[in-house]
Structure to design on (168 residues):
Protein backbone atom coordinates (compact mmCIF):
# COMPACT_ATOMS: atom_id res chain seq x y z
CA UNK A 1 0.00 0.00 0.00
CA UNK A 2 2.71 2.47 1.01
CA UNK A 3 4.79 1.57 -2.04
CA UNK A 4 1.85 2.27 -4.37
CA UNK A 5 1.24 5.68 -2.79
CA UNK A 6 4.94 6.53 -3.04
CA UNK A 7 4.99 5.36 -6.67
CA UNK A 8 1.92 7.47 -7.46
CA UNK A 9 3.45 10.59 -5.88
CA UNK A 10 6.79 10.02 -7.59
CA UNK A 11 5.17 9.60 -11.01
CA UNK A 12 3.03 12.71 -10.42
CA UNK A 13 6.09 14.80 -9.55
CA UNK A 14 8.07 13.48 -12.52
CA UNK A 15 5.18 14.08 -14.93
CA UNK A 16 5.36 17.39 -16.82
CA UNK A 17 1.55 17.46 -16.92
CA UNK A 18 1.15 17.20 -13.16
CA UNK A 19 4.01 19.62 -12.53
CA UNK A 20 2.30 22.11 -14.85
CA UNK A 21 -1.02 21.56 -13.10
CA UNK A 22 0.38 22.12 -9.61
CA UNK A 23 2.56 25.04 -10.73
CA UNK A 24 -0.51 26.80 -12.14
CA UNK A 25 -2.23 26.51 -8.76
CA UNK A 26 0.38 28.53 -6.90
CA UNK A 27 -0.46 32.20 -6.31
CA UNK A 28 2.98 33.42 -7.36
CA UNK A 29 3.44 31.42 -10.55
CA UNK A 30 -0.13 30.74 -11.75
CA UNK A 31 -0.35 30.07 -15.48
CA UNK A 32 2.03 32.90 -16.30
CA UNK A 33 4.88 30.56 -15.46
CA UNK A 34 3.28 27.14 -15.88
CA UNK A 35 2.54 27.61 -19.60
CA UNK A 36 6.09 28.66 -20.57
CA UNK A 37 7.57 25.97 -18.33
CA UNK A 38 5.35 23.27 -19.78
CA UNK A 39 6.15 24.19 -23.38
CA UNK A 40 9.85 24.95 -23.09
CA UNK A 41 11.13 22.71 -20.29
CA UNK A 42 8.34 20.19 -19.76
CA UNK A 43 8.12 19.44 -23.47
CA UNK A 44 4.32 19.42 -23.54
CA UNK A 45 2.42 20.39 -26.69
CA UNK A 46 1.07 23.92 -26.43
CA UNK A 47 -2.53 22.68 -26.33
CA UNK A 48 -1.81 20.49 -23.30
CA UNK A 49 0.12 23.26 -21.56
CA UNK A 50 -2.74 25.69 -22.23
CA UNK A 51 -5.54 23.42 -21.00
CA UNK A 52 -3.71 21.96 -17.99
CA UNK A 53 -2.63 25.42 -16.82
CA UNK A 54 -6.14 26.83 -17.08
CA UNK A 55 -7.57 23.81 -15.26
CA UNK A 56 -5.10 24.02 -12.38
CA UNK A 57 -5.35 27.80 -12.03
CA UNK A 58 -9.16 27.77 -12.09
CA UNK A 59 -9.64 24.72 -9.89
CA UNK A 60 -7.81 26.28 -6.95
CA UNK A 61 -9.82 29.52 -7.25
CA UNK A 62 -13.20 27.85 -6.70
CA UNK A 63 -12.68 27.20 -2.97
CA UNK A 64 -10.93 30.57 -2.61
CA UNK A 65 -14.02 32.37 -3.94
CA UNK A 66 -16.38 30.42 -1.70
CA UNK A 67 -14.29 30.57 1.50
CA UNK A 68 -13.12 34.20 1.56
CA UNK A 69 -16.35 35.49 3.06
CA UNK A 70 -16.60 32.83 5.81
CA UNK A 71 -12.93 33.44 6.68
CA UNK A 72 -13.55 37.19 6.78
CA UNK A 73 -16.59 36.72 9.02
CA UNK A 74 -14.60 34.44 11.33
CA UNK A 75 -11.73 36.94 11.63
CA UNK A 76 -14.16 39.82 12.23
CA UNK A 77 -15.12 38.24 15.55
CA UNK A 78 -12.02 39.89 17.01
CA UNK A 79 -11.61 43.64 17.13
CA UNK A 80 -8.35 43.68 15.15
CA UNK A 81 -9.91 41.58 12.38
CA UNK A 82 -12.96 43.83 12.24
CA UNK A 83 -10.80 46.96 12.09
CA UNK A 84 -8.68 45.46 9.30
CA UNK A 85 -11.62 44.38 7.14
CA UNK A 86 -13.44 47.71 7.65
CA UNK A 87 -10.27 49.51 6.56
CA UNK A 88 -9.76 47.15 3.60
CA UNK A 89 -13.32 47.43 2.30
CA UNK A 90 -13.51 51.19 2.76
CA UNK A 91 -10.15 51.88 1.16
CA UNK A 92 -10.56 49.45 -1.72
CA UNK A 93 -14.09 50.46 -2.62
CA UNK A 94 -13.12 54.13 -2.51
CA UNK A 95 -10.02 53.65 -4.68
CA UNK A 96 -11.62 51.07 -6.95
CA UNK A 97 -14.73 53.01 -7.96
CA UNK A 98 -13.90 52.64 -11.66
CA UNK A 99 -13.51 48.88 -11.40
CA UNK A 100 -16.76 48.65 -9.45
CA UNK A 101 -18.65 50.34 -12.29
CA UNK A 102 -17.57 47.81 -14.88
CA UNK A 103 -17.47 44.83 -12.45
CA UNK A 104 -17.52 41.76 -14.68
CA UNK A 105 -15.50 43.16 -17.60
CA UNK A 106 -13.11 44.92 -15.24
CA UNK A 107 -12.39 41.74 -13.31
CA UNK A 108 -12.04 39.71 -16.53
CA UNK A 109 -9.52 42.19 -17.96
CA UNK A 110 -7.70 42.46 -14.63
CA UNK A 111 -7.17 38.69 -14.54
CA UNK A 112 -6.52 38.55 -18.29
CA UNK A 113 -3.55 40.91 -18.24
CA UNK A 114 -0.53 38.64 -17.71
CA UNK A 115 1.41 40.89 -15.36
CA UNK A 116 2.52 40.34 -11.76
CA UNK A 117 -0.28 40.76 -9.19
CA UNK A 118 -3.08 40.54 -11.78
CA UNK A 119 -3.88 36.84 -11.78
CA UNK A 120 -6.76 34.69 -10.62
CA UNK A 121 -5.77 34.76 -6.94
CA UNK A 122 -5.73 38.56 -6.82
CA UNK A 123 -8.88 38.62 -8.95
CA UNK A 124 -10.67 36.38 -6.45
CA UNK A 125 -9.72 38.70 -3.61
CA UNK A 126 -10.80 41.74 -5.64
CA UNK A 127 -14.15 40.10 -6.46
CA UNK A 128 -14.72 39.47 -2.76
CA UNK A 129 -13.76 42.98 -1.70
CA UNK A 130 -15.94 44.59 -4.39
CA UNK A 131 -18.88 42.34 -3.54
CA UNK A 132 -19.18 40.68 -6.94
CA UNK A 133 -21.28 37.53 -6.61
CA UNK A 134 -19.54 34.16 -6.59
CA UNK A 135 -20.96 32.93 -9.91
CA UNK A 136 -20.19 36.18 -11.73
CA UNK A 137 -16.72 36.26 -10.18
CA UNK A 138 -15.98 32.69 -11.28
CA UNK A 139 -17.15 33.44 -14.83
CA UNK A 140 -15.10 36.63 -15.04
CA UNK A 141 -12.01 34.92 -13.63
CA UNK A 142 -12.39 31.98 -16.03
CA UNK A 143 -12.73 34.34 -19.00
CA UNK A 144 -9.69 36.25 -17.78
CA UNK A 145 -7.71 33.02 -17.50
CA UNK A 146 -8.58 32.18 -21.10
CA UNK A 147 -7.30 35.59 -22.22
CA UNK A 148 -4.16 35.39 -20.11
CA UNK A 149 -3.36 31.81 -21.13
CA UNK A 150 -3.79 32.76 -24.79
CA UNK A 151 -1.44 35.74 -24.48
CA UNK A 152 1.18 33.75 -22.54
CA UNK A 153 0.97 30.80 -24.93
CA UNK A 154 1.36 33.01 -28.01
CA UNK A 155 4.31 34.84 -26.45
CA UNK A 156 5.93 31.56 -25.43
CA UNK A 157 5.47 30.03 -28.86
CA UNK A 158 6.82 33.20 -30.48
CA UNK A 159 9.89 33.03 -28.24
CA UNK A 160 10.55 29.36 -28.90
CA UNK A 161 10.16 29.97 -32.63
CA UNK A 162 12.78 32.70 -32.43
CA UNK A 163 15.21 31.12 -29.99
CA UNK A 164 14.59 27.39 -30.32
CA UNK A 165 13.31 24.87 -27.81
CA UNK A 166 14.85 25.17 -24.33
CA UNK A 167 16.01 22.18 -22.33
CA UNK A 168 17.87 21.70 -19.07
Amino acid sequence: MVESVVHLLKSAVESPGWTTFFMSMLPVTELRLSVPWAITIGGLPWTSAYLISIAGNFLVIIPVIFYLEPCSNFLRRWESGDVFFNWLFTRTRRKGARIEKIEFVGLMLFVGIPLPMTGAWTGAIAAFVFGLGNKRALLAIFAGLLISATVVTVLTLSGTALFGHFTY
Observations:
- Residues 2-163 form one domain.
